[in-house]
């Protein structure tokens, strides 16, 4: 009986210890969710330096104070700027005259090959030599040119580009199509180099462009250019600059790039890893500011030349490299006739250091790397 009582008491104590005593509360652990890794970016934000707020000067600066190279400052033009389409096919290397431009656009033409649209101040006619090789127009280049009210020189073009130029009738731009001139007259305003093969050997000059306007388009020479150009301010270089910029358009094996020189506050251009030089000066191209802008592009259905269309009216993302720093920006062009503008995150228009600007329009800013 005593043994049975002892066993019963033991069982009762065990039951009380397992049901009556509070169990140790284990803190709830968060479910192990998959950590979202940031997508690999070719643009390391760790090196991005904040850009100081820069106000444009009250009196527009129309040239780089260091070099005297042109800055197309808003409010300084009194006549239409000159624009030429410049070949970038390998048979056109090296080009002539890009080092004289106030602004250069770099954008795809077809099959991954880019083309340049060089914008010159009209007083260039007094100092510049040859420009070229000249190549054909595309609709999106024409639309950019319209925002400059330019004298637009090219050699033929896509059906869409030529149709738009014909409809404009020398209003927003004065159209100089060198290959549409009669064979005798073309050499009044251009020439073919015997050192290169056609079509990569057609050249003109600012003086010849000016002569064409006098001869054939004097009634259209004047235009309202008061809103043409950008805002500029004195240099404001930073202590720890972004020194390397690289990008490609479609094929990574066909890159372009820039190397920043803090001593000159300029960016020196590379093409396929080597210095991009001017054919006449033999010097590497340098520009004061570099802009990369993202545009939607698509092939033109049924085009047997592989040409593309690009949406350059509207707005999109941009990166502005100037003074060794980077600003994330928005590009905006409200209509064909409207100028292309760049705006900072606070909606203020970007103010550039005085000097030439290089603008590269590409399908994705993921194609840009910098450090």
UniProtKB/TrEMBL annotation:
Signal peptide range: 1-20
InterPro entries: DUF3048_C, DUF3048_N, YerB-like_sf
Bias type Polar residues, positions: 54-65
Residue ranges with Low complexity bias: 23-52
Domain DUF3048 residue range list: 67-216, 256-359
Key words, A-Z: Signal
Disordered, as annotated region: 23-70
Protein name from the UniProt record: PT repeat-containing protein
Phylogenetic lineage: Bacteria, Bacillati, Chloroflexota, Chloroflexia, Herpetosiphonales
């Amino acid at each position: 009986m005593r043994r049975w009582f002892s066993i019963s008491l033991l069982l009762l104590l065990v039951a009380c210890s397992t049901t009556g005593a509070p169990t140790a509360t284990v803190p709830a652990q968060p479910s192990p969710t998959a950590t979202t890794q940031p997508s690999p970016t070719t643009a390391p934000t760790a090196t991005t330096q904040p850009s100081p707020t820069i106000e444009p000067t009250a009196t527009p600066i129309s040239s780089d104070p260091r070099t005297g190279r042109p800055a197309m400052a808003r409010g300084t033009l009194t006549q239409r700027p000159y624009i030429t389409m410049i070949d970038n096919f390998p048979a056109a290397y090296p080009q002539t005259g890009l080092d004289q431009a106030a602004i250069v656009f770099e954008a795809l033409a077809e099959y991954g090959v880019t083309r340049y649209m060089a914008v010159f101040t009209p007083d260039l006619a007094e100092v510049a030599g040859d420009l070229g090789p000249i190549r054909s127009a595309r609709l999106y280049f024409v639309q950019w040119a319209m925002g400059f009210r330019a004298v637009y020189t090219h050699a033929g073009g896509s059906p869409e580009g030529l149709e738009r130029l014909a409809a404009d009738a020398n209003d927003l731009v004065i159209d100089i199509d060198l290959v549409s001139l009669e064979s005798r007259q073309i050499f009044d305003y251009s020439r073919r180099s015997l050192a290169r093969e056609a079509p990569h050997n057609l050249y003109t000059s600012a003086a010849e462009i000016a002569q064409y306007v006098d001869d054939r388009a004097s009634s259209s020479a004047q235009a309202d250019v008061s809103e043409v150009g950008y805002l500029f301010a004195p240099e404001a270089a930073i202590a720890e600059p972004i020194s390397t910029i690289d990008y490609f358009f479609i094929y990574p094996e066909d890159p372009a790039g820039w190397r920043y020189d803090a001593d000159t506050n300029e960016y020196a251009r590379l093409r396929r890893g080597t210095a991009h030089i001017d054919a006449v000066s033999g010097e590497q191209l340098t520009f004061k500011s570099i802009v990369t802008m993202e545009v939607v592009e698509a092939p033109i259905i049924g085009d047997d030349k592989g040409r593309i269309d690009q949406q350059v009216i509207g707005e999109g993302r941009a990166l502005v490299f100037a003074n060794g720093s980077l600003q994330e920006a928005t590009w905006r062009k409200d209509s064909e006739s409207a100028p292309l503008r760049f705006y900072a995150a606070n909606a203020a228009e970007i103010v550039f250091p005085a000097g030439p600007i290089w603008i590269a329009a590409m399908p994705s800013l993921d194609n840009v790397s910098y450090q």
